[in-house]
Amino acid sequence: MNARTYAAVAVVLMLSATGCSAAGQPAATAPSTTSAPSAPDPADVAAPVPPPSQVGFAYVDPGEVCIRFTAALYSADTRRDTGPGDAYSRAIRYARGTLAGQSSAARQDGRWATWVEHRAYVDAAVEPFVDALLPADTAVSARRTVRVTATPLGEDGWRGWTEHSLVDCTLRRGGSDGSGWRVSGYEIRQAGLR
């Protein structure tokens, strides 16, 4: 493909992506047969749940809050927990109320049945991870990243896959959740299995 053909193809693709045609007229679109989404029923919207607190913890260091949140998130133990959601219930002690209200999603984990079979617990190591691309802290917001190495270990000698992950915590301070730092959102990035 020569340079002139390449440029023409690039222009056509750009115009079609923006909804225009090469003739300068807007691209034709099919009429919509769907109706606009309606506002959710107030009964379907969950109100923020006031988060529980960890007794004796001051919530003054956003990095420590992220470490404790992540360690609790990876603290599954079939010998004492009733299900995979128990670890999330421990983690929300370090989260804002908006995350505390999302615990139902944490109750699903396809690995749980295998772990129960082996009476397993998760051996997790959590350490700070320096991410130079994180924005600077403000008076009310911060970002922290931690590295997690987690391995499910069974009482019978069984050993599951070791998971290597990075957990990015978004933290907020103040408001209805109290004066300290709390995790307001998080993302788990898989770094590999072994």
Q: How would you characterize this protein structure?
A:
There is one protein chain. With 194 residues, this protein is of the alpha+beta class. The chain is 23% helix and 25% strand. It is built from 5 helices and 4 strands, in the order αααααββββ. Strands 1-2-3-4 form a 4-stranded antiparallel β-sheet. Helix 2 runs antiparallel to helix 3. 22% of the residues are buried. The N terminus is likely disordered.
Highlighted features:
four-stranded antiparallel beta sheet, alpha+beta, 194 residues, 23% helix
Q: Total strand count, please?
A: 4
What is the spatial order of strands in the main beta sheet?
Answer: 1-2-3-4
- Relative helix content: 10-25%
The average pLDDT is 78
Structural class: alpha+beta
The value of Rg in angstroms is 23 Å
| Amino-to-carboxy terminus distance | 44 Å
Enumerate how many helices there are, as a single number.
Answer: 5
The main pleated sheet reads as: 4 strands, antiparallel
Question: Uncertain regions: pLDDT < 50 for 5+ in a row?
Answer: 1-45
Q: What is the chain-wise order of helices and strands? A: HHHHHEEEE
* Structural shape: globular
Strand content: 15-25%
